[in-house]
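Question (not urgent): is this output format expected?
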Amino acid sequence: MSIEIRKITANIGARVSGVDISQPLDEGTSTALREALNTHKALVFDDVNLDDETQQAFVRHFGDVTTAHPTVSSVAGVPNVLPVDSERGRAANHWHTDVTFVLTPPQATTLRSVTIPPYGGETLIASSAAAYRNLPEPLRQFADTLWAEHTNDYDYAVPDEEIDDEQAAQRAQFTSIKYRTVHPVVRVHPLTGERGLFIGGFAQRIVGLSPGESRKILDLLQAYVTRPENVLRHRWSENQLVVFDNRITQHYAIDNYDGLPRRLHRVTVAGDVPVGVEGKESYSIEGDASHYTSVAAPVAAPAAAA
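Got this back:
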């Protein structure tokens, strides 16, 4: 097959054609796609003709598949596929990196369009590597020293008294096992050596600082992640699959489709333990996620991190 890879924006995203990802891929094709993901951070495939089984088969070219989620139920009868469904609420309507509240967050996420609204429902994907490069040098040096506690029991934007019984049940399920994990604010990508801001909605506190101080610093850094120049705005169409590198991106599902049906199916790739700029690894404070993901074999980063 002759793979064509076309950039979508300067800092993130490429559209891939010339490969049928519903079929088994040879090693050369798999390697080319993995290298493209390292370079572009997010890949878009059109007219993919996938179902839950073949989506999982494709994802396995990138590594072991996780179960659907540490606390949220999967598609019925398909334990490795998570329904991202408008009927389940709007849990993804905040900037985040998937499942950073566990010790080994997924290394990559795939989303496949199942039901799309006639308008709206885009997914924003941001390059945290570009965000890190944008930081002024003094702020970059400061960020290199910071560690943040991530938790699934985070501060919700909507107060408890403003949610209905169904939303309360969804929130209770999401936090049915409480996780607290400390990750470096600047993560070194294990394959490329790039540095990226590893924060997002589950990062709630900077280690050693008060909640108020933490919020100000996290908001300051997060503003660099969400600069328009660093964001791919993906408008969904039928039979599409998007894969993004969960180690060095954030994403946001826009709630702008008037509650119309919207459903994506998510399959994620098991990840390794994040490492900071000094070579120190993340550590867990609370919560066992062994039922959710295996630990990917560690990969030594290049000697000189970007």
